[in-house]
Specification:
heterodimer, A: 301 residues, mainly alpha, two-stranded antiparallel ribbon, 11 helices, B: 235 residues, alpha/beta, Rossmann fold, 4-stranded antiparallel beta sheet, 37% helix
């Protein structure tokens, strides 16, 4: 029973990180129908920026009190901002010039951008895994099952999802994003600047990757230049599993995959985790081709 | 003063020319009709004015040259465009569709009440998803959405397409009210009879060129026009 609780906690925390990344995939896909393969690397960039910020604050291990709050807030905002700006730059330089090109062109470009980022990150911090300070102290909750770091990551993901739902469905920017997603010409005819709206969508998606990068860096106390490759692939899978373009679906898919991975690793063995994840993906898509929460129409955003 | 002046406008799609050296003008407060068969270039002309397609030549709206401006900025100059096929945001509510049409956020509620006064049906449908409405209701939303921007020039692309006769009559009656308030209009229509009775002047397009222009009444009584666009009344 204790083992079950521990794996539940692991799975939910891992799933929360996948969910945060998946939200970015889904937002970008929703508006420009592009699988942004560079998204996972933006997430890695976030964990590197977090490391830079923590180092600059002089933090090398657990922080307490005011310092803990300051460190978390600064690392979270700093990483979100840096990743948001990076995502906007990528969109501006690599995707916008291909806005009216056949769909395959930006897709291949996204893979290229991913390689460029991975190599740049490797040049910056080297090929080996890097230790991130264990910022969060370790009190346990719920009979010792959940650590503070796990609870924080899960709460962060859920709060972020609700904030995003609010943004997309209750604000004018969200309304404009949905309008551009549904019909770009019609949006232009009512005075919506699609370039600006798409850039802001990339900013938000990048910021979400930054938040995920900070959370995973601090939670796993480790990162490396290819961190976003596997996590990005898994998160993309989560977005598809939940129904791509659907915000709640991305979250649900993320948690499903996190839990599946944790329990498979604990019972059958870590080498079977990916097999389990993709078997479930295929099974779900056979029964529900649009994903768990996807609708018949491609429900963009 | 001309509201809209177009000189030597050319549009082509990948080498195929859709408009060739079109020149026309629309005076302040005027309503004109564009007639022509399928593929004559009527929609291309409206899309060129709105900046949705690239064109050469010049288009001036109230003295401002539109060339090179993005579509969103042209809309904000005061040109409302009700596109062919309505192009609503089908998965959003009527209220959201209308709100998107208004970029002067403070005026949204007031203008929406204005649209509801014009089309009472939309008040009842306000919180329904636009895609679930009937064709006539969707046309009302499309028109209302363009009106939300408080346009000085309204471009209407086939407002009668696929609608029942009494709905067409109602739409044109409302267009008459909007025109009476001083909005300049260009109406593209397959339904030439409705368009000629609504507009004061008309241009006839054929293969991307203006082949005729004149008073709507004169054109409506012209044998060649009757033959080509009014169903060739046999006497």
């Amino acid at each position: 029973m204790h083992e079950f609780g521990a794996q539940l906690a692991n799975g939910l925390a891992l799933g929360a990180i996948y969910a945060l990344i998946a939200l970015g995939y889904t937002m970008v896909y929703g508006i420009v129908e592009l699988i942004n393969f560079a998204h996972g690397d933006v997430y890695t960039f976030g964990s590197f920026i977090t490391l830079v910020i923590l180092t600059a604050l002089g933090i090398t291990g657990e922080a307490h009190g005011v310092l803990l709050v300051v460190a978390v807030v600064v690392a979270l905002l700093g990483s979100a901002l840096a990743c948001g700006v990076l995502a906007i730059l990528i969109e501006r330089v690599a995707y916008r010039p291909l806005r009216n090109a056949p769909r395959l062109a930006p897709l291949i470009t996204a893979i290229g951008v991913s390689f460029i980022l991975e190599n740049a990150l490797q040049l910056w911090k080297g090929p080996a895994p890097i230790t991130v300070p264990a910022l969060i102290p370790n009190p346990r909750f719920l009979g010792g099952t959940f650590s503070l770091a796990q609870v924080s990551v899960i709460v962060l993901a859920v709060v972020t999802m609700f904030a995003l739902q609010f943004l997309v469905h209750r604000t004018r920017l969200g309304m404009q994003m949905r309008a551009v997603a549904q019909d770009r010409d019609a949006a232009a005819l009512v005075g919506i600047d699609a370039n600006r709206t798409i850039a802001l969508t990339f900013l938000i998606a990048g910021a979400l990757a930054g938040i995920a990068g900070m959370a995973s860096g601090v939670y796993y106390q480790s990162t490396w230049f290819l961190n976003g490759f596997g996590a990005g692939l898994k998160s993309f899978t989560a977005a598809v599993l939940g129904g791509i373009g659907n915000i709640a679906g991305a979250m649900l898919g993320g948690f499903c995959i996190g839990l599946l991975e944790a329990f498979t690793s604990a019972t059958i063995g870590g080498q079977w985790a990916n097999v389990a994840v993709f078997t479930v993906l295929i099974a779900v898509l056979v029964i529900r081709p649009n994903g768990l929460l996807g609708t018949n129409l491609p429900d963009k955003l | 003063m001309s509201s809209l002046r177009i000189d030597d406008l050319c549009v082509s799609y990948g080498g195929v020319s859709a408009l060739r050296h079109v020149s026309l003008h629309v005076e302040q407060g005027e309503a004109i009709a564009l007639l022509g068969a399928n593929g004559a270039g009527k929609s291309s002309l409206l899309r060129a004015i709105s900046g949705l397609v690239c064109s050469s030549g010049s288009i001036a709206f109230d003295g401002v040259l539109l060339g090179g401006r993005p579509a969103a900025s042209i809309a904000r100059l005061g040109i409302g465009h009700v596109p062919e096929g309505r192009r609503l945001f089908a998965r959003m509510t009527v209220r959201e569709n209308l709100a998107l049409g208004c970029w002067d956020i403070g005026a949204t509620d007031e203008r929406m009440q204005g649209v509801f006064a014009l089309f009472e049906r939309l008040r009842e449908r306000a919180d329904q998803v636009a895609g679930s409405l009937s064709g006539g209701e969707q046309q009302m939303v499309a028109l209302g959405r363009a009106l939300m921007g408080s346009p000085r020039l309204l471009l209407l692309d086939e407002p009668s397409l696929g609608l029942a006769p009494q709905v067409i009559a109602m739409i044109f009656a409302r267009l008459g009210e909007i025109h009476a308030r001083g909005t300049t209009m260009i109406v593209v229509e397959q339904n030439a009879r409705a368009a000629l009775s609504f507009a004061s002047r008309a241009y006839v397009l054929e293969n991307g060129q203006v082949v005729r222009s004149g008073n709507a009444d004169d054109l409506a009584n012209d044998p060649t026009i009757i033959d080509a666009y009014l169903g060739g009344v046999i006497e």
